[in-house]
């Protein structure tokens, strides 16, 4: 049973990571190595989150055995019999035998660290490179990552010097490994607290605001105005880049050495631009080596990189605009149907995609009305209250988890109460809900954050390779400190609980943080308290207000710029709605015309074709009769004319002089 639980979680987590990657990435257009590397990074991070509760329950069972100074009589038995007091210690249903979890954590952890510090940064530079060969892309990636790797080597060297100079430490390989892990976890914990402070407030608030129809509709109008500006900018940028590509394509001819590079660039352009450039090309014109106006290979590499970026951005804005229009139309339909007396949901536009018949059977217009107009707002409010309660518990535990006497961390209290009764199902569920909520707060912030146009996770297969790889790097760096923070909240980490008990297999892989006392006793304990300040700043939207002051438009209800953008977006949505209504009306008219007059037109065409065939056959018979009548009389004339043409001499256009006088030509003839 224990092996089955571990195997089921491994398979389930793999399909979960594959589903999310399919939602954000594009398996058909993106490179396979990018897909595989991102999938592996996401899979390992999600796997750590799902497997850690099993490690906790197994550790509690092992502590039970050690505390009672007994060992199980049989490895496959469900109970451990205790000789002195004849007590029994229940073995968890998901018990993992000794020796498996340390190997598992070692493989998972070091693979994720290899991905985040070496492979994924290199693949990022490789994916963004505009080189035309594998060698050129590798060279560019190595140059770009030289500074990146040098910075982290400098940080690691500073830690190494500190440990070497301190006379209290004897530098060994295990301690050196612990220093490297501590450096990585310190960087991850610094970023983790920032993202966690935002997610703990924003996730409950977003669900609470999701129950407000007017709020969602106004925010959609605001997004429409911003997205239209970005869409126009992307189209203008694409036009400028395509103009440069056209000039380069016209200047570099078919027999130029760099023509292969130009053809590679043209393949990345949209189809309409390729056809337009193909019509204007003259492949029969040779290039002149004496001219110096030809672009260099370096400039073509830069142009190739710009083409990839501009095409991806243009396609992403087009897809996002269509999705935003559907969302705005649906929210307007919800606002109209709230006052419906029939209590049946009526859509303004029919769905463009075919719906599942099973969903249509159960999700009827009446069920849709009750869900959208009546039940969904209350469901979102209740969910927001539950999530807010979890956020308060997390903030309290982050500020008090270092206290062991008395135990103030609520998560530690819950786990210790379940540990006394050895209720492993409750322990695993409590651990899973706790770490799952922490992961949602952190990972959702990674999915929401946007760094201009360099990093942006867009759904519906619109995320570029650079952003996918960057998200994999963030996940691999955030997950280990997230798990250590969870073990600290539940007092399963011996460094926090100050108890000489058996540590979890995950903590044993991390090593003892006592090597660096100022990190173990200082940074790891007091820095998470900063989450209180970050939660307060997020609640009052201080970051949003600062960005708004700097000129970055943010949705704020008390801002004039926000109201102007809402009005602009509302007008854009109204214009697109009228346009789609005219299209549907035209299609309906054509459909009605075809249904009403289609058969009549077909019969009329058949009659016309039959009449034409009769007329053509009649004209052919008359023509044959007339030709047979005059063929004999004109046969001799045709033979004489052919003989005259054969006797005529051809004109000599190479003669020295040509006489143009018609009189002389007549006399000559």
Automatic annotation (TrEMBL):
The entry's keywords: Coiled coil, Membrane, Transmembrane, Transmembrane helix
Positions with biased composition (Polar residues): 618-634
GO biological process, one term: adrenergic receptor signaling pathway
Highest taxon of source: Eukaryota
Residue ranges that the Swiss-Prot or TrEMBL entry lists as coiled coil: 224-251
Location of region: Disordered: 576-669
Gene Ontology CC: membrane
Biased composition (Basic and acidic residues): 582-617, 635-644
Topology class, membrane: Multi-pass membrane protein
Pfam families per record: LMBR1
Signal peptide limits: none
Compartments, record wording: Membrane
Membrane-spanning parts: 6-21, 33-52, 103-126, 146-165, 177-201, 378-396, 425-446, 466-489, 523-542
Biased composition (Acidic residues): 658-669
Family listed: Belongs to the LIMR family.
Protein's name according to its UniProt entry: LMBD2 protein
Organism name: Anhinga anhinga
Underlying gene: Lmbrd2
């Amino acid at each position: 049973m224990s092996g089955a639980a571990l195997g089921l979680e491994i398979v389930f987590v793999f399909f979960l990571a594959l589903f999310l990657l399919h939602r954000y990435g594009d398996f058909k257009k993106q490179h396979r190595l990018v897909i595989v590397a991102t999938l592996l990074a996401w899979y390992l991070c999600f796997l750590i989150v799902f497997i850690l509760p099993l490690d906790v329950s197994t550790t509690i069972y092992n502590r039970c055995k050690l505390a009672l100074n007994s060992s199980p009589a049989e490895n496959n038995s469900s109970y451990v019999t205790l000789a002195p007091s004849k007590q029994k210690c229940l073995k968890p249903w998901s018990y993992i035998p000794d020796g498996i979890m340390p190997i598992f954590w070692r493989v998972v952890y070091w693979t994720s660290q290899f991905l985040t510090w070496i492979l994924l940064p290199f693949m990022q530079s490789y994916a963004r490179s505009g080189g035309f060969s594998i060698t050129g892309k590798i060279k560019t990636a190595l140059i770009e990552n030289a500074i990146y790797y040098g910075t982290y080597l400098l940080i690691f060297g500073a830690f190494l010097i500190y440990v070497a100079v301190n006379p209290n430490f004897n530098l060994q390989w295990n301690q050196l490994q612990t220093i490297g892990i501590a450096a990585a976890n310190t960087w991850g914990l610094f970023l983790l607290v920032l993202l966690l402070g935002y997610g703990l407030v924003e996730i409950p608030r977003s669900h609470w605001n999701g129950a407000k129809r007017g709020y969602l509709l106004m925010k959609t109008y605001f997004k429409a105005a911003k997205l239209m500006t970005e869409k126009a900018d992307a189209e203008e940028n694409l036009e400028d880049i395509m103009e440069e590509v056209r000039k380069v394509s016209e200047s570099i001819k078919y027999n130029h050495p760099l023509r292969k590079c130009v053809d590679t660039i043209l393949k990345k352009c949209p189809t309409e631009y390729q056809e337009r450039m193909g019509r204007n090309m003259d492949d029969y014109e040779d290039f002149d080596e004496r001219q110096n106006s030809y672009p260099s290979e370096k400039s073509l590499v830069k142009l190739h990189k710009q083409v990839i970026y501009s095409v991806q951005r243009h396609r992403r804005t087009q897809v996002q605009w269509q999705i935003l229009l559907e969302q705005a139309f649906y929210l307007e339909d919800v606002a109209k149907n709230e006052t419906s007396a029939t209590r049946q949901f009526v859509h303004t536009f029919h769905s463009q995609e075919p719906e599942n018949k099973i969903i249509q059977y159960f999700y009827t217009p009446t069920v849709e009305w009750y869900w959208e107009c009546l039940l969904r707002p209350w469901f979102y409010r209740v969910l927001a209250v539950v999530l807010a309660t979890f956020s308060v518990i997390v903030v309290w535990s982050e500020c008090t988890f270092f206290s062991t006497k008395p135990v103030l961390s609520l998560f530690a209290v819950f786990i210790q109460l379940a540990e006394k009764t050895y209720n492993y199902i409750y322990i695993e569920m409590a651990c899973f809900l706790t770490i799952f909520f922490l992961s949602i707060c952190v990972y959702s912030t990674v999915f929401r954050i946007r760094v201009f146009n360099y990093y942006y996770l867009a759904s519906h297969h619109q995320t570029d390779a650079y952003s996918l790889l960057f998200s994999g790097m963030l996940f691999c760096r955030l997950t280990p400190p997230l798990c250590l923070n969870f073990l600290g909240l539940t007092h399963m980490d011996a460094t926090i609980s100050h108890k000489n008990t058996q540590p979890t297999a995950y903590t044993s892989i991390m090593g003892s943080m006592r090597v660096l006392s100022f990190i173990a006793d200082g940074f790891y304990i007091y820095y998470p308290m900063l989450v209180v300040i970050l939660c307060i700043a997020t609640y009052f939207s201080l970051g949003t207000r600062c960005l708004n002051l700097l000129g970055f438009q943010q949705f704020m209800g008390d801002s004039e710029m926000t109201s102007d953008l809402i009005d602009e977006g509302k007008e854009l949505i109204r214009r697109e709605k009228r346009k789609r209504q005219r299209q549907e009306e035209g299609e309906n008219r054509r459909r009605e015309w075809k249904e009403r007059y289609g058969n009549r037109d077909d019969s009329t065409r058949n009659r016309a074709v039959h009449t034409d065939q009769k007329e053509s056959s009649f004209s052919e018979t008359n023509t044959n009769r007339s030709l047979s009548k005059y063929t004999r009389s004109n046969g001799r004339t045709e033979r004489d004319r052919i003989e005259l043409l054969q006797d005529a001499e051809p004109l000599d256009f190479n003669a020295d002089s040509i006489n143009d006088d018609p009189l002389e030509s007549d006399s000559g003839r």
